[in-house]
UniProtKB/TrEMBL annotation:
The keyword Transferase does not apply. Belongs to the class-I pyridine nucleotide-disulfide oxidoreductase family. One of its GO terms (biological process) is 2-oxoglutarate metabolic process. Its cofactor is FAD. Binds 1 FAD per subunit. PROSITE patterns: PYRIDINE_REDOX_1 (PS00076). This is Dihydrolipoyl dehydrogenase. SUPFAM superfamilies: FAD/NAD(P)-binding domain, FAD/NAD-linked reductases, dimerisation (C-terminal) domain. It catalyses: N(6)-[(R)-dihydrolipoyl]-L-lysyl-[protein] + NAD(+) = N(6)-[(R)-lipoyl]-L-lysyl-[protein] + NADH + H(+). The active site is a redox-active disulfide bond. Pfam families: Pyr_redox_2, Pyr_redox_dim. GO terms for molecular function: dihydrolipoyl dehydrogenase (NADH) activity; flavin adenine dinucleotide binding.
Amino acid sequence: MSDQFDVIVIGGGPAGYHAAIRAAQLGLKTACIDAWAGKDGKQALGGTCLNVGCIPSKALLDSSRQFWNLTHGFEVHGISAGNPKIDVAVMVGRKEKIVKQFTGGVAMLFKANKIATYFGTGKLLKNRQVEVTAADGGKQMLRATNVVLATGSVPIELPFAKFDGKYIIDNAGALELSAVPRRLGVIGAGVIGLELGSVWKRLGSEVTILEALPDFLAAADADIAKAAAREFAKQGLNIEMGAKLSKAEVKGNEVHLTYTGKDGEKKIVVDKLLVAVGRRAYTTGALGEGTDVKLDERGRVIVDEHCWTGVEGVWAVGDCVRGPMLAHKGFEEGIAVAELIAGKAGHVDYDIIPWVIYTEPEIAWAGKTEAQVKAEGIPYKTGSFPFAAVGRAVAMNEPAGLVKVIAHAETDRLLGVHMVGANVSELIAEAVVAMAFKGSAEDLARIIHAHPTLSEAVHEAAMSVDKRAIHRAN
């Protein structure tokens, strides 16, 4: 096989494999280099998302939700089950099968699109040469007209709570627990901390989440964050804000934590500690001497709005560049760059990237929060509607949460849509479509929504912007 390509993608995660497939679809001779190896040593495409992130976490979230419903939610339906148990090994095994199905699926797509796959570590050198180092240390040199850096990200490790893989774990470790820990500590009340904390809480663990920031889910709209916090408290998730961890010591089979809270120094003991304080761009070793590719102070590749590095033929996408570390953001950047390389009009609208947290209830939003709109001095109006007034939600025994719509006070254009409730990960797509077409609150309000559906909450929230919601007093 020739070592000269039109496009070489370094990284086979969400951003990388989308870039590779789209480039190949457009007739470009494409290669992809990826270093991922599972705990069994077998190499697999898909990066963090497919192997230890998005897909496996959703598998465990679904399994734990089924168990929670069995033990907490079915009685209202007249369904009872005696002495229910969870077999963690079977649950984790199901997750592994799903992971293999999807990583194998990416490999099949690569084969179908005639993408050359190199398993190993890729390093960009001068003049768009790429050095591939295999797991056994062997090296191979490739060349390309265009190189796309898609090296992804890794968990941030705290200097006083280093991962040991047994007691102090990262997200991958939290997906591999062989038994339900009696006491689980979580550092960080972000997406990963809330989702994985929810998994093990539903299965019976006593979960304590410590968050250093003073405000819960500061990135979300305040009304949505408040409603979500209320539901998590009902579920027994203990979330302490303004809690700064200073020490984590493994003693025996326990982890002893020291942190500073609102009332001074505190200590707690847990059986496992999940550190989920965020992720950092993984660019270590990705750039050789003289490439002229620049990194910022956080180790991210510096790119323009088109994901171009400023160096001829060198691009970067996904978690290793600016912007939110979201798989679907990486998808779109990878596709856009492939299309730009092929001379087409690739584009990503960063203003309406949807965010989703797959807790119970789910949290989703797109666009600006009310606080952002207010800070920018934009005249605005809002409308909201609770799921408790939606027939389908009540029939499903999922009445928690609400939808909030923010629109420009003068033009009525949608500025942001925010949700917390059942299946809002799916409902947010409607808002993104409306915003992509520069839609207004009235547009959402005029569109017929099927009855009974959860989407009626979006409809009524949009109507509420102009104080004309039907099923609540305005």
